[in-house]
Amino acid sequence: CVAALACFEHAGLSSRAAMCHLLLARIALRLDDAADGRRRCDNALAQLARSESPILTYHARLLQGHALTRAGERARAYESYQAAREALETLRSRLNGEDLKIAFVKNKREVYERLVDLCLSGDVEAGGFEEAFSHIEQAKSRTLFDLMFQPVHALAREEGSGSQLRHSIRELREELNWD
Questions:
Q1: What whole-number distance in Å separates Cα of residue 9 and Cα of residue 100?
Q2: Highest mean pLDDT among 41-50, 110-119, 142-151
Q3: How many C-alpha atoms does 143 have within 13 Å on its Cβ side?
Q4: At a CB cut-off of 8 Å and minimum separation 6, what does 145 contact?
Q5: Cα(135)–Cα(117) distance, rounded to whole angstroms?
Q6: How far apart are CA 140 and CA 135, in angstroms?
Q7: CB 70 within 8 A of CB 29
Q8: φ and ψ at residue 166, rounded to 5 degrees
Q9: Using CA atoms, how far apart are residues 132 and 115, in angstroms rounded to an integer?
Q10: Predicted local distance difference test score (pLDDT) of residue 127
């Protein structure tokens, strides 16, 4: 990853270099090195300042929040998670380019869960039950949005699971698209 990072930085491929920094940040966090994880996230964000990539910005801010939480900087972690949420909200439900689908937010609710946790912990100025509830509602809205605008062929692939809800959503989408 370090060798790839050097190549991407030399070639001026800032989004690819940012991806390398994010992978190194993830590794650092798994090794309980919050300081290196945070430094890698900062480097990724610096690379991303040269290119517009909401998905990578989301990942960078989310990992930065993890690193700050582990370092005990919960107020700053909350700010990072808020920035991650904002980047997530700018994303379209469908991403183009295979490299951007890199494990794209298997659980898009994670950032909302972290925000709710920080609100309810009382460790940050902003927070409390009202703000936690607001984040919960945003997460539900995001999930509904993703379900409604998921491509029909993706729902058809998942239909084998037998989910009546998925079947109903697919039928409603087909009706909407037919008109």
A1: 18
A2: 41-50
A3: 13
A4: 93
A5: 10
A6: 9
A7: yes
A8: -60, -40
A9: 7
A10: 65
Burial (CB < 10 A; 0-12, 13-18, 19+), residue 107, is: exposed
Query: For the chain, how many residues are written?
Result: 179
**What gap in Å lies between CA 39 and CA 28, rounded to an integer?**
10
Q: Can you give the pLDDT at residue 162?
A: 55
Mean pLDDT value of segment 40-47: 94
Amino acid identity for residue 45 in this structure: L
For residue 100, give the DSSP letter.
G
User: 76 and 68 in contact (C-beta within 8 Å)?
Assistant: yes
- Residue 117's nearest CA partner among 128, 108, 107 is 128
CB 23 within 8 A of CB 1: yes
Written as six digits, the tokens of 71 are: 């370092």
Which range among 41-45, 53-57, 58-62 shows the weakest confidence by mean pLDDT? 53-57
Which residue is listed with tokens 């491509």? 151
